[in-house]
Design brief:
By secondary structure, this protein is an alpha+beta fold. The chain has an eight-stranded mixed sheet with strand order 5-4-3-6-2-1-7-8. Helix 22 packs antiparallel against helix 23 (902-914).
Length: 916
């Protein structure tokens, strides 16, 4: 069966029509006739070839022949019929690693102008061969003896003078497109290409100085310094894109209209290989996707690394240099990435917040107390946030029933702070009865005077049961505002044990105690809601009043953790406590129960607030708790901060995050914050303290780098360390970064001088123009004030005798006297080599300047042609002459801050207009 038994429709067209299709299809590819070598190399690479051989010669007929052979997987007959001889049909459309997927590349061989095309291919055990002539007639040939792969033979009439010229042209074209060709698998491996037996393959590394190679995952390449900026991108080792700045990769940079670059500067040359890059049909334009973004970031990082190698003199990277590069890379990632900056800030703030919440906003959750003394109690407001001893002591009791262990009582109400603890209010210790079961307490405590003894509410401590380290203790037990105190002999820590028995209930309170438990602010200060409640329950029984109070608190307040409540109360520092509670409508145990105690007093029930711990299963809960104690014939206990069905054990709320015995120690968040802070400090310090030795060769390179960056800032990128590293030499031996130098020009001013200049050491930051490599660079940067011409000019203050001799000087001096509030003066010189009239401001150098230079000066050379011409017209046109002279000094002065003296010019015009 013939190869073309079922010919594609394209082969039936006239030759002229097929050639027109080929010409139109390759219109975007460019004029290079050797571009077909790239297309053939792409096909060979995609076929898995590990070598390519190209031969160029003249045959016996005098024709120029080109053979292109690879050892890939070859093609079958069906593949050739379906794809090779059909326009825009490709068998690699769904192959991500394939370089050519557009179905047009093979037809580029007609750019060679062949009169005969032969194709030999072998796929596994199937071999075939065809011949196509200039009229696109296809004939089958006997298969060639190929182990595997494809052989393409092109013949055309001789176009070069001799065979050697033809071979050189083929070698040059193959080098242009196939020199850095890489295999498909494994990636980043060179695919050898030979032309007439000579290997032309080279590693992907650009020519230039300070070059280095890199490879990271799917991106590899090289970087170097060159006379012209160049960014090249390869896909599979085949060139697909070329630009001048790294920003052009993603389309953010503007491509230059002219390729002319200053020959004096040095620029980065970056070549990058990315086999997964997406290109258009012509392989000359990149398609924007995430790969391009990664490619740009890698290029920016390699530019930073290239500059670091320059600063390190191109030698082997030291450990400090690698650390510095790592820190610079970290800084590079932080730039322009808000989420990374926010994460680093959180690393600093979260440990601080944990520390503050644990020790300042929640001091009640401190470590376990070593001693319980009255001096430690500072309950100054009803928010549990004022330094109250909050952690439960090491106390064990039996039997393990649910109990409230009182530490003290808050009986005094302050209209600004709520219920507070007032020590020094004596209280008679009630008698005890032995009719019910007792509570046995074991407490570890440090012996100290005025020690507080926790005891269950409704119980009393039996003095006779006190034991210190198992021995009877004879000590007086005193009552003070609900607290029980005992004087222990000073000494080391020990175990105090005692027993508590139910207290004898008293039916009546003494008048003084009742008055204290019913004290209230004046009625006119009561909120309207409380006054309405008081009127509503006036005729109800005590039990009904208590029920009304409970319902009112449940409607108005919601339980809230202590830390949140404290923060809300701190925001409302001023105002009545009751109104603040009603405004916030939230509270923890002491706020809710304290508000209920206040309501009970409003409805005529004596009440107070108990402060202590909740005991359950023989141990105390870790946090302080508050509850209600009201008196009606006997003492009753109530807790509105927990559901009505719950017992005291449920009131032991879980400790907030970062508190309790299982919480992580303070050094963990503090260490995390310190590590973050040290990292930031190290980045700043190492970037600013990079010292560059005085090396003439290195200074020559650095000056050319700075010049290139100033002429074309986009070539180095805005994130390059070239801008932030200290490269410009100063008079004090240090260096100044280019970014800081430019900012000083716009702000405080920047000066340069040679070492022999008397003004050179008047300021700490003066650029050293004694370096032969930087001297010319400083003169090109607009805004840098060169102090050498100023010192050579010998400018001095205008004297009275000078004014008498020169009418123009007299007029300028009068003008200067009228504008003293602008702080400028007139200076003159008789040296002919002085600069033309100009404004000179070196007052920013500091207070060490001579008095004359502490103000801006209008410097004038009396022998300069501009002044001589103006002086000749001064007698006739005084105003116009002065304005022309000032305008000339503003527009033609090359070393001054012209924009800063627009205001003096305007003021001069006004002054001259005011003069008669």
């Amino acid at each position: 069966m013939s190869f073309m038994d079922s010919p594609p429709s394209e082969t039936l067209l006239p030759a002229a029509e097929i050639l027109r299709w080929i010409r139109d299809g390759f219109r975007e590819y460019g004029p290079d006739r050797w571009l077909f070598l790239r297309e053939l190399a792409q096909n060979s690479r995609d076929a898995g070839a590990d070598k390519i051989e190209i031969r160029a010669f003249r045959n016996d007929l005098g024709r120029e022949c080109l053979e292109f052979r690879d050892n890939g997987c070859g093609m079958t007959r069906q593949t050739a019929r379906d794809y090779l001889f059909r326009f825009y049909a490709s068998s690699k459309e769904n192959t991500s690693r394939a370089a050519g997927r557009f179905g047009i590349g093979f037809w580029s061989v007609w750019r060679f102008g062949p009169v005969l095309l032969r194709i030999f291919s072998r796929h596994k055990n199937q071999s075939w061969a065809v011949e196509v002539d200039a009229e696109f007639h296809v004939e089958e040939l006997p298969p060639a003896r190929l182990e595997s792969g494809t052989l393409i033979v092109l013949q055309r009439p001789a176009a070069f003078r001799n065979e050697a010229s033809f071979q050189d042209a083929v070698k040059l074209g193959a080098s242009r497109y196939c020199r850095h060709l890489m295999r498909c698998r494994p990636a980043h491996r060179i695919l050898p290409v030979t032309v007439n037996g000579q290997l032309i393959s080279r590693p992907l590394r650009p020519p230039g100085s300070f070059g280095h190679s890199f490879r990271n995952r799917r991106i590899s390449g090289g970087a170097a310094l060159g006379e012209n900026p160049e960014i090249r991108i390869f896909s599979g080792g085949l060139p697909v894109w070329r630009g001048t700045s790294i920003a052009e990769i993603t389309g953010d940079g503007e491509r230059p209209s002219s390729p002319q670059i200053s020959a004096h500067g040095l620029y980065p040359v970056i070549w990058m290989e990315c086999p997964d890059i997406q290109v258009d049909l012509s392989r000359r334009h990149l398609l924007r996707d995430t790969r391009l973004t990664r490619l740009r970031r890698r290029g920016e990082r390699e530019i930073m690394r290239l500059f670091s190698r320059i600063l390190d003199q191109g030698g082997k990277r030291s450990l400090a240099g690698r650390i510095r590069d790592g820190l610079e890379t970290m800084t590079f990632f932080l730039r322009g990435r808000t989420w990374l900056k926010a994460g680093l800030i959180l690393m600093l703030l979260i440990p601080v917040e944990i520390f503050l919440l644990r020790h300042w906003l929640n001091p009640g959750n401190a470590a376990t107390l070593e001693q319980l003394t009255r001096k430690e109690i500072r309950y100054t407001r009803t928010t549990v946030d004022d330094g109250v001893a909050g952690a439960a002591p090491d106390l064990i009791y039996s039997p393990g029933k649910n109990l409230y262990f009182r530490l003290f009582s808050a009986e005094s109400f302050d209209s600004q702070r709520g219920f507070v603890y007032r020590p020094g209010v004596p209280e008679t210790v009630k008698g005890i009865g032995r009719a019910e079961e007792s509570i046995h307490v074991r407490l570890e405590i440090t012996a100290a005077p005025d020690s507080l003894l926790p005891y269950p509410s409704g119980y009393e401590i039996d003095p006779s049961s006190l034991r210190w380290e198992g021995h009877p203790l004879r000590a007086e037990l005193r009552g003070d505002s609900g607290a029980r105190l005992i004087d222990l002999p000073p000494g080391s820590s020990g175990i105090l044990s005692y027993s508590c028995f139910p207290a004898k209930q008293e039916n009546l309170l003494n008048p003084e105690h009742r008055r204290r438990l019913q004290s209230l602010p004046p009625r006119k200060q009561w909120p309207a809601e409380i006054r309405e409640l008081s009127e509503k329950v006036r005729n109800l029984s005590i039990a009904q009043r208590v029920t009304q109070v409970k319902d009112f608190v449940a409607r108005k307040l919601t339980p809230q953790p202590a830390a949140d409540t404290a923060r809300r109360f701190l925001r409302l520092k001023a105002g009545d406590w009751t109104r603040r509670v009603l405004a916030i409508r939230r509270g923890d145990c002491d706020v809710i129960n304290g508000f209920a105690v206040l309501l009970l007093r409003h409805v005529g029930i004596p009440a107070r607030m108990g402060i202590g711990w909740v005991g359950t299963n023989g141990r105390l809960a870790p946090r302080l708790h508050a509850w209600i104690e009201y008196h009606h014939q006997s003492w009753h206990y109530l807790d509105l901060s927990i559901p009505p069905s719950a017992g005291p054990a449920d009131s032991a709320k879980p400790a907030p995050l970062g508190s309790g015995p299982d919480a992580p120690p303070d050094w963990i968040p503090i260490t995390g914050g310190l590590v973050s802070l040290i990292t930031i400090a190290a980045i700043v310090w190492m970037r600013r303290r990079r010292r560059i030795t005085r090396d003439p060769e290195k200074d020559a390179v650095l000056s050319r780098l700075v010049l290139g960056a100033l002429l074309y800032p986009g070539r180095w990128g805005s994130r390059s360390s070239l801008w932030s590293s200290a490269v410009l030499p100063l008079m004090n031996g240090r260096r100044l970064s280019l970014r800081r130098a430019l900012s000083r020009i716009q702000g405080k001013g920047l000066f340069c001088a040679s070492p022999e200049n008397p003004l050179a050491h008047r300021c700490r930051i003066i650029l050293d123009s004694g370096s032969p490599h930087f001297r010319h660079l400083y003169r090109l940067i607009y805004g840098i004030v060169d102090l050498d011409p100023i010192a050579k000019a010998g400018i001095r203050a205008v004297m009275p005798n000078d004014r008498e001799k020169d009418l123009l000087l007299d007029q300028l001096t009068v003008l200067g006297e009228k504008m003293k509030y602008r702080g400028w003066r007139v200076g003159i010189t008789n040296k002919a080599e002085a600069l033309p009239p100009q404004w000179i401001d070196i007052s920013l150098l500091g207070r060490k300047l001579p008095r004359f230079w502490r103000r801006p000066v209008l410097a004038i050379s009396l022998r300069h042609p501009a002044y001589i011409k103006a002086a000749g017209r001064a007698s006739r046109h005084q105003k116009e002459t002065i304005l022309a002279l000032i305008a000339e000094s503003l527009t033609e002065a090359p070393v001054l801050f012209g924009h800063a003296f627009e205001v003096p010019s305007i003021l001069a015009r006004r002054v001259l207009k005011e003069r008669p």
